[in-house]
Amino acid sequence: MYYHDRDQVDMLIQVNPRVGMVDVYVQTFKDDDQSQNFADRLPKSKRNSRWIKENINSQSSMDEKQLVILNDENGYCSKCYYLIAVVSHDKKAEYNILAHYFEATFENVLLLKLGEVQ
User: Fold this and answer.
1) Residue 82 and residue 2: Cα distance in Å, rounded?
2) Residue 59's domain spans which residues?
């Protein structure tokens, strides 16, 4: 569980398995949502998850180990909880997980048209 309290700031979840293979499921929960309780919102599978990252192992690239949630995505919220489930494919899995905010910037230094040569 991660409480995200920054308005309009992107978020990063990184999972680093040392042993085994894991999937990551993420869902949000706001305290003011009286229609459901915390346990009802826990992501248990793909069906009830807003964001998914699958088949992560120690050989996965850094991009494959990171789940980026941008502030303009459907489902993004600030001043709410991000409920993070890590599900193991193997009987034994060892991993560490890091969730934090960050500023994602996207720059196109050079945009070429189709067929254009630089």
Assistant:
1) 5
2) 2-102
